[in-house]
Amino acid sequence: MVKALDGVKILDFTHVQSGPTCTQLLAWFGADVIKVERPGAGDATRKQLVDVPGADSLYFTMLNHNKRSITIDTKNAKGKEILERLIKTCDVLVENFAPGALDRMGFTWERIQELNPRMIMASVKGFGPGKYEDCKVYENVAQCAGGSASTTGFLDGPPLVTGAQIGDSGTGLHLALGIVTALFQRETTGRGQKVLAPMQDGVLNLCRVKLRDQQRLKAGPLREYSQFGDGIAFGEATPRAGNDSGGGQPGRILKCKGWQTDPNAYTYFITQAAVWEKICDVIGEPGWKTREEYSTPAKRLPHLNAIFARIEDWTMTKTKYEVMDICNPLDIPVGPILSMKEIMEDEGLRATGTIVDVDHPERGTYVSVGCPIKMSDSPVEVKRSPLLGEHTEEILAQVLGYSGEEIKELKAAGATEPVKKAAAE
Ligand code: COA
After folding, report:
1. The pLDDT value given to residue 102
2. Containing H/E element for 321?
3. Contact of 327 with 251, CB cutoff 8 Å
4. What is the mean pLDDT of residues 392-419?
5. Which of 17, 69, 156, 248 has an alpha carbon within 20 to 30 A of 84's alpha carbon?
């Protein structure tokens, strides 16, 4: 079956997590993603957090499905020639090097445009233009600089980073959208363009509601925050809100049966206004329905701590799944706190291909996250990540048209393999 991005060629100069997340999505949508890696070493994550000695790590395999790998020494003259040919042939160049690295290689935006005016050059950087533009940035730095850490955690604790990789994978998602949008615009202009997704900006985009709250502070305390019910004054900035719901419908994480021994025996519970009466009945407090101080959402706000404490008395008598089974038919929004172990075994996620088993020649079968976006006319088949340089010759011959003799010369010149290491062996 034809895929959405069939025919699109991506020169994938990405490494670690942010860029690879982006190009993996494009590969799942059908683009031919050609990952350029340093001969003999490759993406540093291949050998990070190794769990199977000698095999590519899960860090690498889980971010590089459906791609082809070519090794090119881009600091070698012949290697640069190969890269120039790739730039002329491909539609998109994606990179997330430290600022300036591509320029130092000799591939400025001006040079890339000279080689291929239709080229879309897409970059992840830690920060956008300004005083921090030269900084190297990893996930947690972006979470801190993008406003996530200052608004995550409990009021009486330090700022916290989240388990969701919003700086890396989140920015990769933003970049992927920028790329397909630029491809769409190229259909009318015929021109490529530069696409930049700074990690700080991407995190901030995901923290939009916290900037909303920053401005609401001018109008008085944030009444849906539990700190309001606790009588604690608000300061100048959006505070950390623990597990309070970020929206206008108050919610908390509550203990369920077994919480004493199971760290994930909890449920999220939202006291949505529309189902307030059903909540009162379910927890055995029908009298609350006529209680004056609980009669409207606004009146309930100062009493949320007492309300949730009583709801928790009820959830503690049920497992998190029983809470779900009882509340769902009543339209009461709840959600079990699922561990990664439970998610890995979830039949529903497996049935939709969001959790997949992948075979790998070096490591055997491993579990991965498949494509989370489902398209009816562009189904995704998750294929294992490439071994380092697995497709070098194939790409040189089939994509770039080098002859067998020329490929031998490129190897001898150290353009695609570490020459000294090969001679010593
Ligand atoms: N052949 C030869 N050299 C190569 C090469 C190849 N195929 N591929 C990369 N290199 C070289 C580059 O030319 C550069 O060398 P230079 O610094 O001498 O010019 C170097 O390898 C690239 O390294 P850099 O990007 O600086 O890697 P790093 O490991 O030092 O830093 C990051 C890693 C992630 C901190 C940095 O790349 C970065 O800040 N990226 C942007 C933000 C980002 O994406 N962060 C999140 C990562 S998940």
Report:
1. 94
2. helix 320-327
3. no
4. 95
5. 17
- Those residues whose C-beta lies under 8 Å from the C-beta of residue 166, and which sit 6 or more positions away, are 142, 143, 146, 148, 202, 203, 206
- What type of residue sits at position 69? S
Both tokens assigned to 407? 């490929």
- Model confidence at 95: pLDDT above 70: yes
Could you tell me which of 16, 36, 385 has the C-alpha nearest to residue 172? Answer: 16
Angstrom distance (rounded) from CA 101 to CA 112: 14
Cβ(200) – ligand 1 distance below 6 Å: no
Q: Please identify, by atom number, the ligand 1 atom nearest to the C-alpha of residue 126.
A: 42
Tens of pLDDT, residue by residue over 311-340, are: 999 999 999 999 999 999 999 999 999 999
14 alpha carbon – ligand 1 mean position (Å): 9
Nearest atom in ligand 1 to the alpha carbon of residue 18 is: 48
CA dist 153 and 391 (Å) reads 45
> Higher pLDDT residue, 423 or 365?
365
Torsion sign, CA atoms 290, 291, 294, 296: positive
43 lines ligand 1 (CB under 6 A): no
The CA distance from 415 to 39, in Å, is: 8
CA dist., res. 240 & res. 221, Å (int) = 14
What's the mean pLDDT in 25-39?
A: 98
Q: Coil, helix or strand for 71?
A: strand
How far apart are alpha carbons 284 and 304 in whole angstroms? Answer: 17
Length of the chain: 425
For residue 156, indicate whether it is catalytic: no
| CA nearest neighbour of 228 among 301, 147, 295 | 301
User: Which of 12, 32, 73, 168 is labelled catalytic?
Assistant: 168
What number of other Cβ atoms are within 10 A of residue 290's Cβ? 9
Q: Which of 42, 7, 45 is nearest to 26 (CA)?
A: 7
Q: Which atom of ligand 1 is the closest one to the Cα of 104?
A: 19
Q: Which residue minimizes the CA distance to atom 6 of ligand 1? A: 38
Closest Cα to atom 12 of ligand 1: 101
CB 119 within 8 A of CB 125: no
Contact 375, 25 (CB under 8 A): no
Please give the DSSP secondary-structure letter assigned to residue 153. S
Burial of 353 (0-12, 13-18, 19+ CB in 10 A): middle
Distance 228 CA to ligand 1 centre (A): 46
Rounded to 10 deg, the angle between the 208-216 and 199-206 helix axes is 60
pTM: 0.94
